[in-house]
């Protein structure tokens, strides 16, 4: 009996130690579970996507998907659209697994795409044919610069991002082949997707015949360093007004109750000389209410409306790396006049901090990154339509002049 009691006491002691360890080192344990391996193993890469197969697309004009939802509930009609959109989705891969996600629809990354397609893709369904490739995206950890010199030397993050971009570029080639060469198009993205979309602008559109067909680009939610205008793009510039065409819009969103972006931090950037860790002290910002790259505060009365979609994200599904299968069957009612917006001198977009709604944040920095598109859903929708109208007007004028 004494022996049994001693054994039971030891078991209880071990359980207690494990419980205390889980409490004290919860974040580290979760990171270890969700983080990628120590090395980038080229022999163990996920299977390459085939963009000739519709299964490799999160959204496509030839398939029915979440991006087809409309505010009215009526079905979208992309067959009548005059413009195409190539959209690159943000990081939905938080692990566990390798440095790059697989294309397995049973995994959690596919679940997270539901919110992206509903909150971003549906913006375009009244005006455009919407293409959004799935790709072997880089793990979320690639955006944290390693502090270990040995780990930094391996450049695992850059290898993972390069692999992801190559998929995006392959999808872009299929996108171009699937459409009439003279059709106008828009490039868009969010977060990691914007990083890849921007590179497409630099290498595949800027100073090429495709540039003449670019209505505008919306690489939103990435800290693009101001030097991207000098070191990357030669003739595609930051949009200066709401109806300018052939330009790009970008911003990243923080609430005014917090300190905003950590200007001492670094983030991955691709330049024509290769990948770099660059400072975020001065970034590019276009106000998504006024559509001007200035520091003027635009008040709430001008805000056209946010899309208050509840996320399909679930922490347990993430830990188990599974797709819960939750989908949207309708859009929420847009909320106008929700916030003012202002780009500060450093290029951060500040808004009125949100409380007691789906946009509310509980982090000290008041980072609204997940809602960069949804907060300005109706503003972006109206702006896309305005730029398309202006582009078509200019095109008709050019054709008439040539004749």
Fold and architecture overview:
With 403 residues, the protein is an alpha/beta fold. The protein has one domain (32-402). It has helices spanning 2-24, 26-34, 108-119, 149-154, 156-177, 192-205, 228-231, 315-320, 377-402, and strands at 57-59, 83-88, 128-133, 185-190, 214-220, 253-255, 266-271, 274-279, 341-343, 349-351. Strands 1-3-2-4-5 form a five-stranded mixed beta sheet. A three-stranded mixed beta sheet has the order 6-10-9, with no helix packed on it. The longest helix is centred in the C-terminal third of the chain and has 26 residues, at 377-402. The N and C termini lie far apart (103 Å). The model is unreliable at 2-33 (pLDDT under 50).
Q: Can you tell me the number of structural domains?
A: 1
Average pLDDT number:
87
The helical percent reads 25-40%
State the end-to-end distance: 103 Å
The Rg value, from CA coordinates, equals 23 Å
Order of helices and strands: HHEEHEHHEHEHEEEHEEH
Quaternary structure classification: single chain
Q: Give, in spatial order, the strands making up the sheet with the most strands.
A: 1-3-2-4-5
Strand content: 5-15%
Shape: globular
Major sheet description: 5 strands, mixed
DSSP strand count: 10
The helix count comes to 9
What are the segments in which pLDDT stays under 50 over at least 5 consecutive residues? 2-33
Helical/strand content category: alpha/beta
